[in-house]
């Protein structure tokens, strides 16, 4: 491992690829721009996938990684939502994480543990080693603002959010209908919602939050998040964090040929993340509403 006096950061990421990709780019920035060394510690509940392995194996030599032993989720109902599965995987891997951090403390100058939005249960383990806990929020600043506001909203509203008559006023964001809130918030009796509330409350225990967005895109939300609130940790926008591989060739892609033929600034790019899917009708509805608003 690298020089023991170099500040070292441990990153605990959720299982799967969705949060790993921006965290990998964040780790590269920490290494190349701030001279840290980094170790990824990855909880699992299944065998690591080939994309995970290839992504991690391609990292610079100053970024290390290890997979924790699989968590036992045999008692989990088959219809459990992904938020529940991920949260339980992390919480049931804390003993393995403790061993990993103990090893890092012995070998490196470990200064921080960075987790994603579902990793807040790891804060207690970080405190055992006097390691500062931070959150990397891989989604938008608006979603982070909702996360921090969710405990208050939960107390204020008694019905299902989709049944609300009043609009939801997320700090720093546009008002939206309750039915437009995140999918796991729509069934408040479901364990997935309970886990969201659990993590949103624990976000305040972090010493800081890095959000994968930037002021030019979400000025309102980021400005409100960066206002000093006694109950909220400092928030820093660090986005956009996207895969940048100068060796990758895109020649011959029909979609890029089509894009090159379009007038400048005439195309709107919309991403729904690695788990987002839309039906044919929904895509047409989205395109039609955009054209109608021009």
TrEMBL record:
Give the keywords, sorted: Glycosyltransferase, Transferase
The GO terms this record gives for MF are: UDP-glycosyltransferase activity
Q: Which domain of life is it from?
A: Eukaryota
Reply yes or no: does the keyword Chloroplast apply. no
For this entry, the protein name equals UDP-glycosyltransferase 72B1
Organism listed in the record: Hibiscus syriacus (Rose of Sharon)
